[in-house]
Amino acid sequence: MIRFEDPTYLWFLCIIPALLLWQGIAWKQRKTKLKRLGDIALIKQLSPNYSKLRPNLKFWLLCAALFILILMLARPQMGTKISHEKRQGIETIIALDISNSMIAEDVVPSRLAKSKLLIENLVDHFNNDKIGLVVFAGDAFVQLPITSDYVSAKMFLQNIDPSLIATQGTDIAEAIKISTNSFSQQSNIGKAIIVITDGEDHEGGATEAAKAAHQKGINVFILGIGDPKGAPIPLREGGYLKDNAGNTVMTALNETMCRQIAEAGSGTYIHVDNTSDAQEKLNSELTKLQTGETDSVIYSQYAEQFQAFGIILLILLIIDVCILNAKNRHLKSYHLFKREHK
Is the pTM of this model over 0.70? Predict the structure, then answer.
């Protein structure tokens, strides 16, 4: 496993696209100037030693060398020692509703943004626990397999958006089923599914899925987010979502269904509003779960790998120096890629 000690190298990588753009403009300007001088075929005859391939090849070698240099300065490291640590904690799968109704702004700044903030705060309170992410709308899939890598969890969380799932709807049952199958095979450990949704279940079967999860020793918690009175769904281009009749579509939190699912899953229903009460109550409920030993794979030692990148960089620079812009007159008689016509 290779990691980079200095993450700022990503900003320096932007230099390469800038170079490509500059070179493209330079090539176009040069071609325009050559056309002004006269006929291109005649200019080629007057410049027998000119090589079109060599300057291009040298430019790509320069880009490759610059890329390797940036990676080398970022201090690449490879894990050399793996340790399996036993930790006391629980396993939690968070199933997040990303249907269009979650864009409603009855919870500030929006239902989805508030949900992300809640999950991030939850991760900050985790210590020896494992977390996984499942996203769902009309379909569901695993966004992040269960892990103890909280940095990756936050990174994947930031990339969650309603555009991840094209099929609209709210299939809570499928989300619970996928979450149930996403836990590790460890026993004697507290396991919880946290479903964050506005409760508009369009497919049905969520109560049965929660019961099945509970039979496997998994508690299902439902975090209902939104206003039961309803709110419009804003559009990216402005305005609000309307139905075929031209009426504004209102999306309301279905608290009754949320409570039924939580009860079937032997969990707790928690209403998420603009306060921090939901966060505190969820943290309190999770501490009641049985903790057990979780096995975490950790790279405890890392070795510097910049030497290998330095060797590659040196080879590229040597090749660049050896290649001249003009054709080598001693090699003109050799045709490696073209058949000589007699």
Answer: no
